[in-house]
């Protein structure tokens, strides 16, 4: 798109389209409508992050990449600080639509600012769009997403639909790789993978996407549906993660002269600690505990980002950086969406299984439950008492599912450290 229409036009179009789609999300009158406009919002807004990152990096000398990435990252995390806090307050005070409406003025202002700030596009060689490569990759990603999101509901590979989607994903991905290696102007230049640090950087940013956004999705749902937290408090808890991110990016300014492997190891190590901490939670966890863990997550992801970016693109030429950046952010988004689907699937699977096991033990004929010291205030003799007890079992089963998902989060963070050890030292 940049090669065909120019960076300035694409950037302004995407920001404007994202703003309009956000307003339409607030106007949605049905679930189908909001899903549609959320898809449009994500599709139009996706190029904004890699384009803005490339614009910032291209505007400064290469030796200042670490400093520039730190400042850029600090501004990026201001959104997660402000958005959840004000969104939660507006949703609780008015309704959920205002969580979308509050973004519209900022988006309109950004579009106007880009119109005056970005220089005119320079004439450049137009590249033909590799539609076959694009369709193959989109098919592979969509099929994997469907397998993960519908597998639990359809009993996984006992379903013909899941088998078909899995086979289509494998075939489409294989065809995509072969096509990219044999065509003259591929959708993604896989030859860039010959750079060792770039290839490892793609793996690490895939993992980074997995662990960066998953807690933001899982924790609010747990706190709202099963722990009874109001939207305003949940927004503050998520907002503190953004404050931790600002601190993390600030720390990278101090340790910027260190080997990038050290910063990434520290960051992923803190995520392992955060995962262990989350695995020790229960439904009575206090706000202060959740705030501290949220800050720790923010510090960790803030520390990781700058050395990961510097390491990944350190061996690429300026000509290859924009294309490498697009793949970099593509894998980050794919990792995020796939791991969120996988985590939700684990929550549903584990929650259902543990609910069944615990309900098998709850019966008026279970003598172990007849002692007052065992049952406490629960009533096993009435239908109302059994219903209340069933709801409590459902809460605890859901909590177990979330704990298992947090365990996956911790394990993936630990695996990332192993890949960091394979990174070749980057010259200072």
Describe this structure in words.
Helix 5 (65-76) packs antiparallel against helix 14 (287-313), helix 11 (196-225) runs parallel beside helix 15 and helix 13 packs antiparallel against helix 17. It is globular, with a radius of gyration of 24 Å. It has helices at residues 2-5, 7-27, 31-45, 48-58, 65-76, 78-93, 98-101, 103-117, 131-150, 160-182, 196-225, 231-254, 260-279, 287-313, 321-361, 372-375, 383-420. By secondary structure, it is mainly α. The chain folds into 3 domains: 1-46 and 77-128, no CATH class; 129-184; 193-361 and 377-428, MFS general substrate transporter like domains (Growth Hormone, Chain: A). 76% of the residues lie in helices and 0% in strands.
Give a quick precis of the structure.
With 428 residues, the chain is mainly alpha-helical. It contains 17 helices and no strands.
Tag the structure with descriptive keywords.
Growth Hormone, Chain: A, 17 helices, 428 residues, mainly alpha, globular, 3 domains
What is the topology?
Layout: H1 2-5, H2 7-27, H3 31-45, H4 48-58, H5 65-76, H6 78-93, H7 98-101, H8 103-117, H9 131-150, H10 160-182, H11 196-225, H12 231-254, H13 260-279, H14 287-313, H15 321-361, H16 372-375, H17 383-420
């Amino acid at each position: 798109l940049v090669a065909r229409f120019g960076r300035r036009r694409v950037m302004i179009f995407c920001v404007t389209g994202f703003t309009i789609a956000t307003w339409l999300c607030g106007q949605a009158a049905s679930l189908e409508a909001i899903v549609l406009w959320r898809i449009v919002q994500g599709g139009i807004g996706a190029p904004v992050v890699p384009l803005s990152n490339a614009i910032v990096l291209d505007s400064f000398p290469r030796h200042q990449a670490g400093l520039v990435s730190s400042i850029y990252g600090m501004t990026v995390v201001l959104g997660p600080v402000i958005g959840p806090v004000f969104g939660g307050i507006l949703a609780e005070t008015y309704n959920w639509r205002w969580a979308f409406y509050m973004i519209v003025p900022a988006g309109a202002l950004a579009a106007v600012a880009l119109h005056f700030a970005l220089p005119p596009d320079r004439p450049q060689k137009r590249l033909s769009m590799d539609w076959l490569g694009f369709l193959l990759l989109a098919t592979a990603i969509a099929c994997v997403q469907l397998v993960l999101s519908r597998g639990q509901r359809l009993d996984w590979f006992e379903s013909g639909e899941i088998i078909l989607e899995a086979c289509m994903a494998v075939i489409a991905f294989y065809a995509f790789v072969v096509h990219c290696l044999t065509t003259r102007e591929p959708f993604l230049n896989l030859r860039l993978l010959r750079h060792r640090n770039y290839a490892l950087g793609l793996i690490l940013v895939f993992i980074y996407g997995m662990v960066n956004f998953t807690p933001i999705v899982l924790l609010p749902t747990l706190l709202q549906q099963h722990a009874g937290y109001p939207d305003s408090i949940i927004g503050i808890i998520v907002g503190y993660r953004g404050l931790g991110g600002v601190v993390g990016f600030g720390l990278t300014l101090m340790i910027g002269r260190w080997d990038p492997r050290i910063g990434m190891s520290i960051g992923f190590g803190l995520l392992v600690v955060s995962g262990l901490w989350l695995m020790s939670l229960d439904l009575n966890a206090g706000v202060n505990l959740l705030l501290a863990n949220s800050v720790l997550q923010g510090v960790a992801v803030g520390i990781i980002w700058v050395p990961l970016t510097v390491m990944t693109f350190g061996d690429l030429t300026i000509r290859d950086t924009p294309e490498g950046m697009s793949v970099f952010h593509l894998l980050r988004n794919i990792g995020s969406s796939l791991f969120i689907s996988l985590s939700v699937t684990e929550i549903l699977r584990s929650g259902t299984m543990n609910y069944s096991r615990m309900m098998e033990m709850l019966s008026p004929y279970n003598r172990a439950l007849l002692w007052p010291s065992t049952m406490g205030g629960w009533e096993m003799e009435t239908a109302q008492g059994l219903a209340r007890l069933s709801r409590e079992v459902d809460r605890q089963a859901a909590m177990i599912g979330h704990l298992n998902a947090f365990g996956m989060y911790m394990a993936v963070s630990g695996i990332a450290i192993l890949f960091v050890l394979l990174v070749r030292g980057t010259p200072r």
